[in-house]
Design brief:
By secondary structure, the chain is mainly beta. It contains 1 helix and 9 strands, in the order αβββββββββ. It is 9% helix and 62% strand. The chain has an 8-stranded antiparallel beta barrel. The longest helix is centred in the first third of the chain and has 17 residues, at 2-18. The chain is elongated, with a radius of gyration of 20 Å. It starts with a helix and ends in a 5-residue tail after the last strand.
Length: 199
């Protein structure tokens, strides 16, 4: 058993050494909203809110067509409720860490999917120019699943689109029962990778 473990470790180390690793940065726009059975506020459905998302990534090439891409992104999310000309904004900011499996076509197009964990950094409610901290009403950790596609140029530039599907409720318990509210939406962004060999 010990020999098998040691062999596995050396095999993994050898694989990691041979794997082509690229580093990168990315930035873009989020279009997020709340969903779930408790997402409506006094019968009003939530609307999409635009926010910024950006950070760094590591792309680990596992084979000619498959790679693994962990990212660390600061993401401004939330939603907006509108009624009778008035708007109420929920702003939830996260540090998101997605780990995505990518299929890379030789033409430059790619598809990706994978889990994401988000760590809440702030949550605010604003209306009529006033803002209130509501972080205590939200869970500190959020889980979602990403589905995306894009195109990578040979010089390292890339463009991509991703949909993040909320998996868990973001609202904290209210009188012993956690409201069923999830956050998710679309992300459109640009990226630039360096290191390895941009073919």
């Amino acid at each position: 058993m010990k020999k098998v473990f040691i062999l596995s470790v050396f095999t993994f180390i050898g694989f990691a050494i041979q794997a082509q690793i690229k580093y990168g940065i990315k930035a873009g726009a989020n279009f997020t909203t709340f969903s779930g059975s408790d997402a409506k506020m006094e019968g009003i459905s939530p609307k999409y809110k635009v926010g910024f998302a950006g950070g760094g990534l590591v792309n680990i090439q596992l084979s000619e067509m498959f790679s693994l891409q962990p990212e660390v992104l600061y993401s401004l999310e939330g939603t907006t409720y509108k009624a009778q000309g008035e708007s109420v904004h929920f702003k939830t900011d996260y540090v998101n860490i997605p780990v995505l499996a990518q299929y890379n076509n030789p033409s430059g197009f790619y598809a990706e999917t994978g889990p994401q964990v988000g760590f809440l950094t702030s949550a605010k409610l604003s209306a009529d120019g006033n803002s209130v901290d509501i972080k205590d009403g939200f869970k500190k950790i959020n889980f979602s699943w990403g589905f995306g596609a894009g195109y990578k140029l040979s010089n390292g530039l890339g463009i991509g689109a991703r949909y993040n599907l909320g998996l868990t409720s973001i609202a904290d318990e209210d009188g012993g029962e956690s409201p069923k509210i999830k956050v998710g939406g679309f992300h459109l962004g640009l990226s630039y990778t360096f290191g390895g060999a941009n073919e």
